[in-house]
Amino acid sequence: METLLQNNVLYQYYEYPLEKEFEQVIVEQASHIFGAQSIYIDIKKKIGDSIITIPDGYLIDFSFKADPKLYIIENEISSHDPYKHIGSQLLKFAISYKASGREIKAFLLDHLMKDADSLKQVETGLQRAGYRNIDAFLEDIIFNKKIASIVVIDQSTYELEEVLSQLTMKTDIIEFQTFTNGKETIHKFTPFNAEIREVTETSKSNLKAEELNTIVVAAREEGFEEEFLGNNCWYSIRIHAAMIDKIKYIAAYQVAPISAITYYAEVASIEKYQDTNKYILYFKGKPVKMKPIPLNKERKGVAPQSPRYTSLDKLLKAGNVAQVFD
Fold this sequence. Notes:
- The protein is α+β, with helices and mostly antiparallel strands and 326 residues long.
- The chain has 2 domains: 3-191, no CATH class; 195-325, ph1033 like fold, CATH 3.10.590.
- The protein contains 11 helices and 16 strands.
- The chain has helices spanning 19-28, 30-34, 83-96, 101-114, 116-129, 134-144, 158-165, 194-200, 221-230, 312-317, 321-325; strands at 3-6, 9-14, 38-42, 57-61, 69-76, 148-153, 171-175, 177-180, 185-188, 214-219, 233-237, 249-254, 260-272, 279-283, 288-294, 308-310.
- The strands form 3 sheets. Strands 10, 11, 12, 13, 14, 15 and 16 form a 7-stranded mixed β-sheet that branches. Strands 3-4-5-6-7 form a 5-stranded mixed β-sheet. Strands 1-2-8-9 form a 4-stranded antiparallel β-sheet, with no helix packed on it.
- Helix 4 runs antiparallel to helix 6.
- The longest helix has 14 residues, at 83-96.
- It is globular.
């Protein structure tokens, strides 16, 4: 098992024996996991007879100020069968969700009215997004927008990816792990929508989340000529659920020895890739060769290792890779 070392103290991986214990930690750390722009609503209550299954929680997310979204949360431990637990839970909820919309709305409204801090955050967010009132806001995120889901799990597995690949519901996976030395604990995770906030919340950036329309991927020599340039596509890309409908362009950062962004293409469609929770992007035409955007050799950690987001306008004006995301 993985081990962490901090201040010369070893922390061993902690395997949660019970899902209840794991879920309690997720609730306690919700503000760190989901960010200040989100409201985590813990739920262990059946809402009406029409809901076949009960989610562990709801998330109202304002990462995109003009386009807030509602997510359902499933907190799971990897020792559970993903087919019986996660897959069936999400599938049943997706089937019953629309029919249960009124009950869900009533529950969310009741929760917000009883929580002054959450209510204040929602009122600020809905005004910024242009809604008349909280009723219009809840109507829109429940009935007019497609709900997505977030699975928080201690260890992601191939079986989980395979299960989620079969669902039409867009789903993000957050891997949340705990390490302990017997007295203290350390939690290891990548926050929800971290790549989006990395671009929009930096001190240098003036880019708004709503302007993000381009995904930058790292492309190695093997397969780049054949797939990106030859077949006008790129695959096995992990994309946040919130970004799938917003991506209009893809750009390729060719790794060393080229170490530069060299091509971009307009995206025609985005589809699930095989039996994974990743995606394949098909281009509208041939990729466009651009003046290479070189890597900043004096700055470390700038080269894209995993997919990152920006706007096409910012990409085309950038003089180096750092400026694409700064």
